[in-house]
Automatic annotation (TrEMBL):
Intracellular or extracellular location(s): Cell membrane
Name of this protein: Ferrous iron transport protein B
Ranges where the FeoB-type G domain occurs: 1-161
Segments crossing the lipid bilayer: 283-304, 349-369, 389-412, 424-449, 455-475, 513-534, 613-632, 641-661
Record's keyword annotation contains Ligase: no
Keyword annotations: Cell membrane, GTP-binding, Ion transport, Iron, Iron transport, Membrane, Nucleotide-binding, Transmembrane, Transmembrane helix, Transport
Membrane topology: Multi-pass membrane protein
Taxonomy of the source species: Bacteria, Bacillati, Bacillota, Bacilli, Bacillales
Task performed by this protein: Probable transporter of a GTP-driven Fe(2+) uptake system.
Organism: Paenibacillus phytohabitans
Superkingdom assignment: Bacteria
Family the UniProt entry places it in: Belongs to the TRAFAC class TrmE-Era-EngA-EngB-Septin-like GTPase superfamily. FeoB GTPase (TC 9.A.8) family.
């Protein structure tokens, strides 16, 4: 089956095109040597597999993860390439295109965002571009799917895509060096286009250089490169060899753009620029972002999400539970089975599922911010604040994603170029309030702050961000001294996200929560129920005499100074290490709550407003869940940093909860 690689700059619509061209896709492990997931889709016409390469500006990587594209091209051999470019930013995009043309494989150029270019008064002539580059050029609007059928038609038989005959002359001196290097590379079997490999070596591509070092002695090759660079310097043509190669390419790109682009009607101020003048304003930008975030939380927890969750809670606590009771009685189920299903499974898992509408709405809102182009502006707004704390604005995107789930958020930190910034972001990510903590906040906010639920929940999110920034400053000052940080980010044009894309993105984020409900939360609920059902005296014992009570009682004295020193509270925290969602399901089982109203009544009798704040702060800050711990180990490749992240979060949680409760008591709060 044919394999076709999809390559392009970030923010060129590559993901939209991938989703349009494929009927289904899956993650098939990671790319070799790095932690970037390998995304492979099946083309709708059955012509083969489409491999989605990470978004890159050049084959010369800024970070080790960006080296995936060069590694793939040199180690594997796709039948063809699809290079997607932004028609409104063609000059910058064509730098990668030239590197792919030199690779020598059949290539199709997807000229995307022609609608954006036209709106800006930029006219790109696909026929002229095709004649200049010598490859098939297809105009696209990947966001709406326009033009994707033509791409599928061309890809139906990759062997019929015209071969590439591109050859850019770099001057007599460099061409002689390319020929000498190519001649020496002939001793290595399995390499792709030798001219391409030679040029990548001369550009000092670390991925290519490392691979060649494994297969041959590269000292003679490096001498050839050094000699060529010395001659360029003597002739005052360029300071470095990579600089000369880039200058030749840019000259060619400008000539192509001059022929293919008509910018005489380009508008001086487009919609994106007008919006940016307000949304990224020095004084207005941050307050507007805070307003947007507050509106997002009100929509999620009050205006839309709350009523939907109430409806689902009514169904689970009413018809579903009553139907299960009737069915179990009709078939003569034993008391044990009846209690397991109704109290353990429906009560435990159902107590978490009632929050699914709010979680999916939150994911929908985050996806909207990402797809609209506004999220990149937030990074720009936050850069000065983040820089003062030891990070750059690019780390803010993983932090926002962390509001959904810490695991993909930590993976998103791979796009950060500097190792120091990537490590700091990974270590601080567990302080972001993920969707798993949300049921706990919603439960306690509904009981103790019914008139200000959104504000109470937002306060927990803000608390996590504040402590992350404070610790970032401490860690960067004492743990990562003398390591620099740079900030490079592209601001894509504002777009109205497509409903289909939003739906798919929301589902991708939210299905993990549903999967947990069917696995970890279900298993945790059953185990917790069994511990509450059994005790030293046997089965069906009083809750206070159960194994769960004995277990929680061991932890309770340590929690007494924090305001929730009961065995019930202690019993919820340890299972919460497996998955924070289990905290609420454990409470449902412990308090025998038939629905949310019943659980809220029990919580109101055990906690006070002050102790509830202390408990929510502890849930926010204490040891991250098992899945997050696992991905921290995977990303840092260090048990030292993994245990450090667990240790500092536990100490921080205890200290903050202690200050909240004891400080509140001193001030006379209850």
């Amino acid at each position: 089956m044919s394999s076709i690689a999809l390559v392009g700059n970030p923010n060129t619509g590559k993901t939209s095109l991938f989703n349009t061209l494929t009927s289904s896709y899956e993650y098939v492990g990671n790319w070799a040597g790095v932690t970037v997931e390998k995304k492979v889709g099946s083309l709708k016409n059955g012509a083969g597999k489409l491999i989605d390469l990470p978004g890159i500006y050049s084959l010369h990587p800024l970070s080790r993860d960006e080296g995936v594209a060069a590694q793939y091209l040199i180690e594997e051999s796709p039948e063809a390439l699809i290079n997607i470019v932004d028609a409104s930013q063609l000059e910058r995009n064509l730098l990668l295109t030239l590197q792919l043309l030199e690779y020598g494989k059949p290539i199709v150029l997807g000229l995307n965002m022609i609608d954006v270019a036209n709106a800006r008064g930029i006219q790109v002539n696909p026929e002229v571009l095709q004649a200049q580059l010598g490859i098939t050029v297809l105009p696209l609007i990947a966001r709406t799917g326009k033009g994707s059928s033509q791409v599928l038609s061309v890809l139906e038989k990759p062997a019929n895509i015209p071969p590439v005959s591109f050859h850019l002359n770099y001057g007599e001196l460099v061409e002689a060096t390319i020929a000498s290097i190519s001649n020496q590379l002939q001793q290595i079997s399995g390499l792709p286009n030798l001219r391409w490999v030679s040029l990548q070596l001369m550009e000092q591509n670390p991925v290519v250089l490392e691979l060649l070092k494994k297969r041959m002695d590269t000292s003679e090759l490096m001498l050839l490169c050094d000699a060529c660079q010395t001659q360029l310097q003597k002739q005052k043509l360029a300071l470095t060899l990579p600089q000369w190669i880039r200058s030749i390419r840019m000259d060619y790109i400008r000539s192509v753009c001059a022929a293919a682009i008509d910018a005489t009607k380009q508008k001086p101020h487009n919609l994106t620029e007008r919006l940016d003048s307000i949304l990224t304003h020095r004084f207005l930008g941050l307050p507007l972002f805070i307003v947007f975030m507050y509106a997002m939380f009100k929509t999620t927890f009050d205006w839309v999400g709350g009523p939907l969750s109430d409806l689902l809670d009514g169904f689970i606590g009413g018809p579903l539970s009553d139907g299960a009771n009737s069915l179990l009685q009709a078939i003569g189920a034993s008391g044990f089975t009846h209690a397991l299903i109704v109290d353990g499974i429906i009560g435990g898992v159902g107590g978490v599922l009632v929050f699914v509408p709010q979680i999916f709405i939150l994911f929908l809102m985050i996806s909207f911010l990402e797809d609209s182009g506004y999220m990149a502006r937030v990074c720009l707004l936050m850069d000065s604040t983040m820089e003062r704390m030891g990070l750059n604005g690019k780390a803010f995107i993983p932090f926002i994603i962390g509001f959904g789930c810490n695991v993909p958020a930590i993976m998103a930190a791979r796009s950060i170029e500097q190792p120091k910034d990537r490590m700091l972001t990974t270590l601080l990510m567990p302080l972001m309030s993920c969707s798993a903590r949300l049921p706990v906040y919603l439960l306690f906010a509904a009981v103790f702050f019914p008139a200000r639920q959104a504000t109470a929940v937002l306060a927990m999110y803000v608390m996590g961000v504040v402590f992350a920034l404070i610790l970032c400053k401490l860690f960067s000052k004492h743990l990562f001294k003398n390591e620099s940080s740079i900030f490079i980010i592209e601001l894509p044009p504002y777009r109205m996200p497509q409903f289909k894309t939003l739906g798919r993105s929301t589902w991708e984020k939210g299905k993990g929560f549903l999967r947990k409900a069917g696995t970890i939360i279900l298993a945790g609920s059953v185990i917790i129920w069994l511990m509450s059902y059994a005790g030293p005296a046997g089965f069906n014992v009083e809750m206070d005499n159960s194994f769960l009570a004995k277990f929680g009682g061991l932890i309770a004295p340590l929690l007494q100074p924090l305001g929730f020193g009961t065995w019930q509270a202690g019993s919820t925290l340890v299972p919460g290490f497996l998955a924070k969602e289990v905290v609420v399901s454990t409470m449902n089982i412990i308090y025998h709550a038939p629905d949310s109203a019943g659980l809220e009544g029990q919580i109101a009798s055990v906690f006070t407003p002050l102790s509830s704040i202390s408990f929510m702060a502890f849930i926010l800050l204490y040891i991250p869940c098992l899945a997050t711990v696992g991905v921290i180990k995977k990303e840092t490749a260090s048990w030292k940093w993994t245990f450090f992240s667990m240790g500092y979060s536990l100490v921080l949680a205890y200290a903050v909860s202690l200050v909240i409760f004891q400080g509140g008591r001193l001030l006379g709060w209850s």
